[in-house]
Design goal:
The structure holds two protein chains of two kinds. By secondary structure, chain A is an alpha/beta fold. Chain A has 18 helices and eleven strands. The relative contact order of chain B is 0.12. Classes of the chains: A alpha/beta, B alpha/beta.
C-alpha cells in the first residue's frame, strides 16, 4: 500500500474517502456511498449529462476533453449495445493517481461507471486495469462482487427496474493500451493497437457498439458531482476547469506524493510549498508538468497555474497530472534517454514514424549520453522528433516527440556539453555501466 | 451513390460518395504514395506515406483512410508533405538492409521506387541496423525480416483475401515481426499471394529466389495450364541450354480475370517444363524398346501406318484421344483431322463434366452462362457440389471476395463441410451422391427431398431455401461434375425461372471446356452438333463418317477384340488416369504425343515429345466459357507443338494440309508459332509486313488460321478478335450451340485434384510435391494415381 500524504491546501473530493477503509462496501455506504447513483437513477439521461457538462469536468487521462460533451456524443438509439469503459491502464511515467483510487475507493469508480451508463443508456461497463496493477484488480474484483451481492449491480438495480453489469479486465502490460481504441482492441482479446478514426468510439466502439471511455479519476469524480452539484464542483477550479486534480508530485522534492489540489493551483507553490521544495540545498532545473509525454518547463517557466488552458498556454500540457521535478544535478540528456527508452519499449510498432523514430532516438541518445555524440546528432534528434510529431497513427508518437523537442530546444547547451568524447558532466564515473543497463 | 466534388491540388475531382481520398486522387492522375494501402483490403493507416493536407484540419491526414466529402480542399504536394514522405523513407531505410544488389525484389521494389521519387540519398543514422536471420517458412516461402517494412499486406491478403489466416504480427515496437501460424513454418494453401503482394523483398519465392534479376527475364502473360479456371500467370523466362527456362510465375500482370489471385499451381507449378524426364526426341519402338529416332522417321512411320489401317480396315479401326490441356486450335484440328484424314469418329477425351447436357439445356437461352468475372459481382451465388477451394481456387477466391466486399449471399449445398461454407449465408449438408436429387428437388420434385434430408436439415429448411433461391435475382448457379444428364437439365429448368440467373458448369483441367466445345467426342462435332445431324461442318469438312464413333471405353473394348488397329493419343494419359489396363492396346499401333513417358506413352509404338501450353500460342476456354489467349513463353529444344505434329502426320499421310489448315485467307496475325520466334517479336514482324504492303506468309502450323475457322463455325466463339488478342477474356455463349447428345454418366470421371495435385502434370512438379500440405489426406475418390 502506498502511504498517503497531505497538505492544508488540498481540497479533498476524490480523495475524500482515502484511508477510511472505503474498500469495505459497508464502510463505503456510511461515507455516502452509492447515494450518487441512486440520485442519478431518479434523473433522466440528459439531466445527468448536463450536470456533468456544467461541472466543467474535463478528462483526467490527459487530453482534457469535456466529459459531459463526450457523453452527449453517444447516440440515443443504437441497434448494438452501448458500453461504458473505465480506462485504468495508468502507465504514463510519473503518474500514479488511478492506482490510489482503485486502492482506496474502488466503489467510487464503480459508481462513476454506473452513472456514465445511465447517462448514455448503456447496460454494461468494463473496468480495465493496467496489467502491472495486479493487486488492484483483486481489490476491484472484490468490490464488484460486493456490489453484486448488495444488489447494486445486476438485474433491477436498487429496485429501479433497470439492469447494469460491470466486468473487470486486466491488461497485459502495454502502455499503448491506454489509448482508448487500443484498449478496446485489447478488451476484445486482440493485439493492443489503435483503431482508425473515424468512426469514433462514441459511435463505433467496443464490439462495434457506441462506447464511452473515461479515465478512472474522471469517473471517480462523477459521483461527487452528482451529490455536490455541478455548481459547487465547477467553482473549485477556474473557469472551464472544474474541480480538483490529483497531482502526482515526484522527483527532487522533499515531500513527494499524490495531492488533490484545486484545478489552477500554482505550479510554483506546488513544488515549493506542497512538495516542500528541492532538498539537499539544490536548485530547480526543470519540471515535467503532466506525465513524461509533456514538454518540460524550465525553472523560469514555473510561474503558471495548473489547469488545462494555462499549461497549454505555457507550451506544455496538464496531461495526466504527473509532475516530475528535476534538480540542478540531474542530466537532461539522461532524462531524455530514460524517457525515450520508455517510448521505444512501449511503441506498438504499428506505424513507421513511431516504430522507427523512437528506436533511432533511443539508439542515438544512448551513444550520445555515453560520450559518443557528434554535433549533427543534436539536430538529428530534433529533426527526427519533429518529423514524428503529428504524423503518427496515434498520440504515442507525439508523446515521444514532444518532450524530446523540448529537451533539445530548452537544454541545447547541456547536449553540447556531452560532445567531443566528454563523459556526462553529471556522472563523472560509471556512465558506461549505466548505459549498458539502460540499453536493455 | 451520389457524387461528391472536391478539389485536389487545384483540380476538381468528382467521385461517388464513400470513395477514399487516395482512390479519388488516382482518377485524376494524382498519385498519392502508400505502402500499406491496398485496394480491397482493410485499411491500416500504418505507413503514413499518403499524408496530405486537408483544409481546416490541423494535422496532415492519411488519404487512405479519409473518405471524400463535398467541398474538401486537398493539397497532395507541398514542401510539408514532401518532407513528411521523405522522413518516413529515411526512418524505413534506417533499418532496411539496402541489399538491393542481391535482393529478388531489386528492380521491382516499391521501396526503391518510393525512395527514387520521394526519398533522400543520405542516411542520418550511425547506429547498427537491427538484424534478424532469414527464415524459411515453407519450401516455397522465405521471409527476410530486415527487409520487411511492416505494411501488413501479407497478413491481410492471407486472412481477408484467402480466408487462411496463416500470418500474424508478433512482438511490438521495433521488434514487431510478421510470423507464420505454426510458429516457424506455414501450414496454409501455399498460394504465395503474400509474396506477390509484398512491396519489398521481405517475402520471396522458394522457386525463384536468387536465381535471376527481373530485368534479365522476358515476362509473358499467359494462361495457367492447370485447373479449369483460366488464371492469367506472368511467366518469367530466361535463356537456358534447353532453349528456355521458366524461372518464375506471378501475377505481375493483373489484367487477367484473376486480378491479384494465383494459387500454388499458377505460381510455382510451371516447373514440370524443366523436368529432367522431359522427352526431347521422338521414340520409336524397335525390337520392343522405345528407341530415339528422327522426326522424319517418326512422321513417315506414323503416316504410313495410319494410312495403311485406314485404307485396309477403315477409319473406324483408329481411335483418337485428345487432351484437356491442348489449345482450342489443337483440339479443333485434332477433331477435324480424325474425321477428315483418319476418317474416324472414334474421338474422345478425359471428360470431367457433362458439357453436352449443359449445352443442350442452355440451348436458345441467351446470357445464361456466367463468366468468371460475374462470379465476383453476382448478388447471390448457389454452389452445388464441388470444393472450389481445392478444385477451382480462382472461383473460390471470386466467391469469397464477392461475399466479403459486396455482401453477396452464398448458398452452399455439399456433401462435405467444404471451406466455403464459412462464407455461406446458408450451408446445407447432404448425403454423398445426392447432388442430383438436390437439382430435382429445386426444380419442383418434392419427392426428391427425402434423399437430401439428413440429420442436419429438415424438409422445412429445404422448402424455405428453395423459396429464398426463387426470390433471388441474377443468381449465379455453379455446380460440380456431380450433376449431369437429366439432373443438369432439371437444375437449368429451376434456374431459368429466376430472373437473370446464370450457370457455371465446373470441369477440371485448363481446357476441358475447350476440348468439349471443339468436339472431341465420338458423336459430336465442334459446338455440340451431333455427327448424325446436319451442320455447317458437314459442308465445310466435306466427306466425314456419318455414324457415331466409339467413346474411350468403346475403344478399349474394340482393342480387346482386335478391332482397334491404331490409337492416336494427343496429350492425354488414359492408362494413368482412367484405370485402363496397360495391356489394353497391346495389339494396336499406338502413337502418343506427350511431354513425358507417362503410363500411356510407355506402351506407345511411337512417342513424340510435345510442347506444353507454356510453349505455344493459341486459345483456352475456361470452365465458365471465357476464351483467352495463350501466349508462348519460349521453346524447349527437341519438342514440337501438338498442332505442328498433327499437320505433319496429315502431310505424311499424303493429305493436302491446306484443307486442314486454311492458310492464306482471312485476317491473320501471326501468333509466333510459325517462326519459332517469341510471340511479341512475331506480332511486330506481322505489323511490319502489313505496313509495307506485304502479305504475311502464313505457315500450315499457324494456329491463327484455325482460330479463324473456329470463330466462324463454332457457335459462341464469334467474339471480338481485337479484345482477345489484347489479352482480355471473352465470354462465349452456348445459346446457339447444337442440341448435344445424352451420354452415359460413367463416361464422366472427375479428376479429384486437390490444390496440390494436377493430374499427370502434377507428378512432374516438384513444387507441388514439395509442400507438406500435398501429403495430407486427399478426397475420398482419388483417381488411379
Amino acid at each position: 500500500m502506498a502511504s498517503l500524504v497531505s497538505h492544508p491546501d488540498e481540497v479533498k473530493v476524490v480523495t475524500r474517502r482515502f484511508g477510511l477503509g472505503a474498500t469495505n462496501i459497508d464502510r463505503y455506504l456510511e461515507l455516502d456511498g452509492y447515494k450518487a447513483v441512486q440520485k442519478a437513477l431518479g434523473m433522466d439521461a440528459d439531466a445527468i449529462i448536463n450536470e456533468v457538462k456544467n461541472s466543467g469536468l474535463r478528462g483526467r487521462g490527459g487530453a482534457g476533453f469535456s466529459t459531459g460533451m463526450k457523453w452527449s456524443f453517444v447516440p440515443k438509439q443504437s441497434a448494438k449495445p452501448k458500453y461504458v469503459l473505465c480506462n485504468g491502464d495508468e502507465s504514463e511515467p510519473g503518474t500514479c493517481k488511478d492506482r490510489l483510487i482503485f486502492e482506496h475507493d474502488p466503489h467510487a469508480v464503480i459508481e462513476g461507471v454506473m452513472i456514465g451508463g445511465l447517462a448514455v443508456g448503456a447496460r454494461s461497463g468494463y473496468i480495465y486495469i493496467r496489467g502491472e496493477y495486479r493487486y488492484l484488480s483483486i481489490i476491484m474484483q472484490k468490490a464488484i462482487r460486493d456490489a453484486y451481492a448488495k444488489g447494486f449491480l445486476g438485474k433491477n438495480i436498487f429496485g429501479s427496474g433497470r439492469d447494469f453489469d460491470i466486468y473487470w479486465h486486466g491488461g497485459a502490460g502495454a502502455y499503448e493500451v491506454g489509448e482508448e481504441s487500443a484498449l478496446m482492441e485489447s478488451l476484445e482479446g486482440k493485439r493492443g493497437i489503435p483503431r482508425i478514426r473515424p468512426p469514433f468510439p462514441a459511435v463505433v466502439g467496443l464490439w462495434g457498439g457506441p462506447t464511452v471511455i473515461n479515465n478512472a479519476e474522471t469517473l471517480a469524480s462523477v459521483p461527487h458531482i452528482m451529490l455536490g452539484g455541478a455548481e459547487w464542483y465547477a467553482k473549485i477550479g477556474p473557469p472551464k476547469n472544474g474541480g480538483t486534480r490529483l497531482f502526482c508530485l515526484s522527483g527532487n522534492v522533499a515531500k513527494p506524493g499524490v495531492y488533490e489540489l484545486p484545478m489552477g493551483y500554482s505550479l510554483k507553490k506546488m513544488i515549493y510549498e506542497v512538495g516542500g521544495g528541492i532538498p539537499n540545498g539544490r536548485s530547480l532545473k526543470a519540471v515535467v508538468p503532466g506525465g513524461s509525454s509533456t514538454p518540460c518547463l524550465t525553472a523560469d517557466e514555473i510561474d503558471i497555474n495548473m489547469d488545462f488552458d494555462s499549461v497549454a498556454k505555457a507550451g506544455s500540457m496538464l496531461g495526466s497530472g504527473g509532475v516530475v521535478v528535476l534538480d540542478d544535478q540531474q542530466c537532461i540528456v539522461k532524462f531524455a534517454l530514460r524517457t525515450m527508452k520508455f517510448y521505444q519499449h512501449e511503441s506498438c510498432g504499428w506505424c513507421i514514424p513511431c516504430r522507427e523514430g523512437t528506436d533511432w532516438l533511443k539508439k542515438t541518445l544512448i551513444r550520445f549520453h555515453s560520450g559518443g555524440g557528434v554535433k549533427k546528432d543534436i539536430d538529428n534528434m530534433q529533426y527526427l522528433s519533429e518529423n514524428m510529431l503529428g504524423r503518427t497513427f496515434c498520440p504515442l508518437g507525439d508523446a515521444a516527440a514532444m518532450p524530446t523537442i523540448a529537451f533539445v530546444k530548452k537544454f541545447r547547451k547541456e547536449f553540447e556539453d556531452h560532445l567531443d568524447g566528454r563523459p556526462c558532466p553529471y556522472e563523472k564515473a560509471g556512465v558506461a555501466e549505466e548505459m549498458e543497463a539502460l540499453s536493455h | 451513390m451520389a457524387d461528391v466534388t472536391l478539389t485536389v491540388d487545384g483540380k476538381k475531382v468528382t467521385a461517388p460518395a464513400g470513395t477514399l481520398l487516395i482512390e479519388a486522387c488516382k482518377t485524376v492522375g494524382i498519385e498519392v504514395p502508400s505502402f500499406c494501402y491496398y485496394p480491397n483490403l482493410s485499411l491500416q493507416g500504418a505507413c503514413r506515406m499518403c499524408l496530405v493536407k486537408i483544409e481546416k484540419m490541423p494535422k496532415l491526414q492519411t488519404a487512405c483512410t479519409t473518405v471524400i466529402s463535398e467541398g474538401m480542399i486537398v493539397t497532395s504536394d507541398s514542401e510539408e508533405i514532401k518532407q513528411a514522405r521523405k522522413s518516413m523513407l529515411e526512418m524505413l531505410l534506417g533499418n532496411h538492409p539496402l541489399d538491393c544488389p542481391v535482393c529478388d525484389a531489386g528492380g521491382e521494389c516499391e521501396l526503391q521506387d518510393m525512395t527514387f521519387s520521394y526519398g533522400a540519398a543520405e542516411s542520418k543514422f550511425m547506429e547498427a541496423k537491427n538484424h534478424k536471420d532469414e527464415q524459411q517458412w515453407s519450401p516455397v516461402v522465405f521471409f527476410d525480416r530486415p527487409r520487411c517494412i511492416l505494411c501488413y499486406r501479407c497478413v491481410r491478403v492471407c486472412g481477408e483475401g484467402m480466408d487462411v489466416w496463416a500470418l500474424g504480427v508478433q512482438n511490438r515496437g521495433v521488434s514487431s515481426i510478421i510470423a507464420p501460424n505454426k510458429e516457424d513454418h506455414l501450414e496454409c494453401e501455399e498460394c504465395g499471394m503474400c509474396i506477390d503482394i509484398c512491396p519489398v523483398g521481405a517475402l520471396t519465392s522458394g522457386a525463384y529466389r536468387y536465381k535471376t534479376r527481373p530485368w534479365e527475364m522476358k515476362h509473358v502473360g499467359t494462361i495457367c495450364t492447370h485447373c479449369g479456371d483460366g488464371c492469367k500467370t506472368t511467366l518469367g523466362v530466361r535463356r537456358a541450354d534447353t532453349g528456355m527456362e521458366i524461372v518464375r510465375g506471378d501475377n505481375r500482370d493483373k489484367s487477367g480475370t484473376n486480378g491479384d489471385f494465383l494459387c500454388i499451381k499458377g505460381r510455382y507449378a510451371f516447373d514440370f517444363a524443366n523436368h529432367e524426364e522431359r522427352l526431347t526426341q521422338p521414340l520409336i519402338r524397335k525390337e520392343g524398346k522405345l528407341t530415339p529416332a528422327t522426326w522424319e522417321e517418326a512422321f513417315q512411320l506414323i503416316g504410313k501406318k495410319f494410312a495403311e489401317v485406314r485404307d485396309r480396315d477403315g477409319g473406324s479401326a483408329i481411335g483418337v484421344i485428345g487432351s484437356t490441356r491442348t489449345t482450342n486450335e489443337e483440339s479443333y484440328l485434332l477433331s477435324k483431322f480424325a474425321r477428315m484424314v483418319l476418317k474416324t469418329n472414334n474421338v474422345d477425351h478425359h471428360r470431367t463434366a457433362d458439357f453436352p447436357a449443359f449445352a443442350a439445356a442452355l440451348r436458345g437461352k441467351a446470357d445464361a452462362t456466367a463468366s468468371m468475372a460475374d462470379v465476383f459481382t453476382a448478388p447471390a451465388i448457389l454452389l452445388i457440389g464441388n470444393d472450389p477451394t481445392e478444385q477451382h481456387p480462382l472461383l473460390a477466391w471470386q466467391i469469397r471476395n464477392n461475399v466479403r466486399l459486396h455482401r453477396s449471399r452464398l448458398y452452399v449445398i455439399n456433401s462435405q463441410a467444404i471451406k466455403l461454407r464459412r462464407q455461406a449465408t446458408n450451408f446445407m449438408q447432404i448425403p454423398a451422391g445426392a447432388e442430383g436429387k438436390v437439382a430435382a428437388f429445386l426444380a419442383g420434385d418434392d419427392a426428391a427431398a427425402d434423399a437430401i434430408i439428413n440429420s442436419s436439415s429438415t424438409k422445412d429448411q429445404w422448402n424455405s431455401l428453395r423459396d429464398t433461391l426463387r426470390g433471388e435475382q441474377n443468381l449465379v448457379i455453379a455446380f460440380g461434375s456431380e450433376i449431369l444428364g437429366s439432373d443438369l437439365s432439371s437444375l437449368v429448368t429451376f434456374g431459368s425461372a429466376i430472373a437473370g440467373a446464370k450457370f457455371v458448369c465446373l470441369a477440371d483441367y485448363a481446357n476441358s471446356r475447350g476440348a468439349a466445345d471443339m468436339g472431341l467426342y465420338p458423336d459430336l462435332l465442334p459446338g455440340y452438333h451431333p455427327i448424325s445431324g446436319s451442320s455447317e461442318f458437314h459442308t465445310e469438312w466435306g466427306e466425314i463418317p456419318q455414324a457415331a464413333g466409339l467413346d474411350l471405353s468403346g475403344m478399349v473394348e474394340a482393342a480387346s477384340t482386335n478391332k482397334l488397329k491404331a490409337l492416336y493419343v494427343v496429350g492425354s494419359n488414359p492408362i494413368g488416369r482412367l484405370k485402363i489396363d496397360s495391356f489394353a492396346f497391346s495389339n494396336s499401333f499406338v502413337v502418343v504425343q506427350d511431354m513425358f513417358l507417362t503410363e500411356t506413352a510407355v506402351v506407345a509404338d511411337v512417342a513424340l515429345p510435345a510442347a506444353n501450353a507454356y510453349e505455344k500460342s493459341g486459345t483456352f476456354t475456361n470452365t465458365c466459357g471465357d476464351l483467352q489467349l495463350v501466349k508462348k513463353a519460349g521453346e524447349v529444344t527437341g519438342t514440337k507443338a501438338d498442332f505442328e505434329m498433327i499437320v505433319r502426320i496429315a502431310d505424311a499421310m499424303g493429305f493436302d494440309v491446306r484443307k486442314l489448315v486454311p492458310i492464306g485467307g482471312g485476317t491473320h496475325a501471326d501468333m509466333g508459332q510459325s517462326r519459332g520466334a517469341q510471340s511479341g517479336e512475331a506480332d511486330r514482324h506481322a505489323v511490319w509486313l502489313e505496313a509495307h504492303g506485304l502479305e504475311p506468309k502464313l505457315s500450315p502450323f499457324d494456329p491463327m488460321a484455325i482460330l479463324d475457322e473456329i470463330q466462324r463455325l463454332v457457335p459462341g466463339y464469334d467474339v471480338s478478335r481485337m479484345n482477345l488478342l489484347a489479352g482480355n477474356s471473352q465470354h462465349t455463349s452456348l445459346a446457339k450451340a447444337g442440341p448435344g447428345v445424352a451420354h452415359r454418366p460413367e463416361s464422366i470421371s472427375p479428376a479429384n485434384d486437390t490444390l496440390f495435385s494436377s493430374g499427370t502434370l502434377g507428378h512432374y512438379s516438384r513444387a507441388l510435391k514439395s509442400v507438406m500440405e500435398s501429403h495430407e489426406v486427399k478426397p475420398a475418390e482419388v483417381a488411379a494415381d
